Amino acid sequence: MSMAFYPSLKDRVVIVTGGGSGIGAGLTEGFARQGARVAFLDIAEDAGRAIERELSGLDPAPVFHRCDLTDLDALRATIERIRREVGPVDVLVNNAANDDRHAIGDVTPDYWDNRMAVNLRHQFFATQGVIEDMRERGRGSVINLGSISWHLAIPNLSLYETAKAAIEGMTRALARELGPDGIRVNCIIPGNVKTPRQEKWYTPEGEAEIVAAQCVKVRIEPKDILAMALFLASDDARACTGHGYFVDAGWR
What we know:
Strand content: 5-15%
Helix content: 40-55%
Shape: globular
């Protein structure tokens, strides 16, 4: 699968959260191959450094920053470092999340707060940290990653689904407030994407059931999410904001 090339992304400063594995690693590589200056954040240092080494031959090569996104002071400091070292931020891809399974009866207030911090809160505050750069130039793109899970009401994901549903609402609210400044805010809603993490949850039989429920009988891969993200980040999508874009092969 060859990717479209977007000239407007060349030399743009792009931040990808959770960019060290899975969908995030695909986003990191894909934006870098467009000629963007990519900074990617992840709490998993070994995985992040491995991606950084693997892509070191690209020009410019993406740069890894270890960051615990639940630590908002660390998140702010990391964004400030990127702004100083790389330049004003043009594109923010809020990708990081964790879909650990949980039973309703096992949820404690502390676990609730942790899941909201891991899956929702950092998207808002990362956006808050980059909008002044975007306002000054009168343009910018924020891309939030949602999930099809709450649309399908998949069991044992109540907190994850709550956070992901909230992301779609937050996307619309931020798009309305930031639109007059030329800042676009959109949400990508992936279906079940074939990554090592998802293979942990689904057997081959389970994956076959998902494909059978899709309109298009393909296994979704990170590059499919990347294709949508590249478009939404580019100037070609200048009139696209405030909406969710499903990349789910028609899973119903």
